[in-house]
Amino acid sequence: MAAEQLGGISSVDIDPDGVFKYVLIRVRPAGGQGPARDIVRGHAWAEYHADIYEKTAAEIKKQGYDCECLGGGRISHQSKEKKIHVYGYSVGFGRAKHSVSTKILKDKYPDYAVTWADEGY
To answer: Who's near 5: CB < 8 A, 6+ residues apart?
Structure first.
């Protein structure tokens, strides 16, 4: 049942266009029992990576789950060109594993060119 409920949490929630900060978050049932799932959140309104994480963590905790931030970076999303590029790092959380974030994004946007690099801020 927990795995099915985790499936109700969207794997990706990012802005439709622009360059913005993002975080990679691991969600698990409260108490750490059961399967975990990684999700990507990214928004231009956030001044800091922590702003995105804190908002998402509050929403997830209301649903009865725990979460932790695995790192952050930036996303360049060009919806007209169907391109997403993941790069950079978070000063507060460190660099997310962009290869993991990219796989999650490719699953959500199968018709996009999704790339990543460790360079850049």
So the answer is: 29, 63
In 3D space, the residue among 9, 113, 121 whose CA is nearest the CA of residue 72 turns out to be: 121
Does 83 count as an annotated binding residue? Answer: no
pTM comes to 0.93
Instruction: Indicate the burial class of 99 (C-beta count within 10 angstroms; 0-12, 13-18, 19 or more).
Output: exposed
Q: What is the pLDDT of residues 31-74, one digit of tens each?
A: 877 899 999 999 999 999 999 999 999 999 999 899 999 999 99
Question: Among this protein's residues, is 77 annotated catalytic?
Answer: no
Among 106, 108, 110, 100, CA closest to 118: 100
* Per annotation, catalytic residue among 43, 49, 77, 98: 49
